[in-house]
Design a protein that fits this description.
With 139 residues, the chain is mainly α. It is 87% helix and 0% strand.
Length: 139
């Protein structure tokens, strides 16, 4: 088998691996999203906590949940765990910042309910974070 043939043969395998990782990341992300959203609703709606602070706290819990599960199942990387967590958390901070910007625009600026803005931000944040975590946190 030539080097070119080996590269071509490896391409579908790499695509399949990426697809499996995306599916696993999405499923695990779902558990983190559920945790994040429930904690956000409790903090914001039951305690009256400001939506941005509630978002930071709830997202942090979701990040920790997702890091552990993704390290074990999606990317199967257990080396340099502290460095990987710090990178994963930094990526998670992009989600916090993005969601808080959306709160500023849609909740504070346009008067849209914070619960709807939080729910609407989740798919956008998931996509951004998958790319960043795959390329940086678990590379």
């Amino acid at each position: 088998m030539t080097e070119t043939t080996a590269t071509i043969d490896a391409a579908p395998e790499k695509q399949n691996r990426t697809l499996r990782q995306l599916v696993s990341y999405t499923l695990i992300g779902g558990s983190g999203v559920a945790l994040d959203f429930v904690v956000f609703l409790l903090l914001h709606n039951l305690t009256g906590m400001d939506e941005q602070l509630a978002n930071a706290l709830s997202t942090t819990l979701g990040i920790a949940n997702n890091f552990v599960l993704n390290a074990l199942f999606t990317f199967e990387r257990r080396d340099r765990i502290v460095l990987r967590f710090l990178r994963f958390y930094a990526v998670g901070l992009t989600g916090i910042v993005l969601t808080n910007l959306l709160f500023l625009v849609f909740t504070d600026g346009l008067g849209i309910d914070a619960n709807l803005v939080k729910a609407g931000s989740l798919p956008l944040v998931l996509a951004l974070q998958f790319v960043l975590n795959r390329k940086w946190s678990f590379a």
